[in-house]
Every structure is written in C-alpha cells, then in structure tokens.
What does this fold into?
Amino acid sequence: MSVRYKLVQNNREGSRTRGKWYARAVPVGVIRSEQIAEDIEEKCSLTKSDVLGVITELVTQMRKHLLAGERVILDGFGGFKCGIATSPADSAKDFTPTKNVKSVHIIFQPTVKKSADGKRVKSLLTGVTVEEYGMYHVDKEEQP
It folds into this structure.
C-alpha cells in the first residue's frame, strides 16, 4: 500500500520558493469508526458493538485526561497532549489567559521506533511507500 501524492506549484506571493514544485499527500478515501470496528470484529472475538463501545469510551477518557492537563499515551500508537497558541505580552504581569491565549489544540506525536538500519520511523508508517496519484494532470515538461 502506498501514500499517494500530487504535484503542486508554490504560487504564494513573496515566497522564496515561488514557482517551485512540491508533492502533497492525497487521501484516497475516508475510514470511520464503524468500518474500523467491523475490521477489528473480523480479527478477534469482540463484536462490532463492543469495539464501538470501547472507541466511544476511549474518546471520553482521553478528553477527561486532556482537560486535566495530562498527556495521554496509547502504547504503540502515540501520545496526545494539549498545546496553546498565544499572542505576546509586554511583560509577565501583562499576560492574561483571556487576552493572550488565542486557541487550544491537540498535538499528536506518533510512537517512534528504530528501523533495521537505525533510522527513526513512526510506527504507524513502518514500510510506507509513496506513488503519484493517477487522477490529475500536471504538465511535467520544462516550462520557460
């Protein structure tokens, strides 16, 4: 299985890399909890409704612990923690959460393992390959 990509050109005004080409990952579908539960049901003794119940409770418990300021680590999967985006204050005394905290977000850090050649690889991406997405067109000829 491969991660598909398409080529996109940087057209941002003022960018140092304007006109350069980059690969952007393209998802080829969406898998939701229901399908994951069915797939898991085929691999073990749990029923689909058991798995959906566990997923639902996992989300509830993760939210509880994240709201308590804790980091949540799912072994072999990765860790979740809260991050914040703030605007600067002129001094520590001037900083207030209501004025300076702009947003709160979730940071996901996947589990990392060392590959046979000693490189750090995100465990969810072990063995990944990439290939160009076939359903779009980019003229790859040299442009003036």
Q: What stands out?
A: The chain has a mean pLDDT of 92. The CA atoms of residues 37 and 43 lie 10 Å apart. DSSP finds three helices and eight strands in the chain. Residues 48-67 form the longest helix (20 residues).
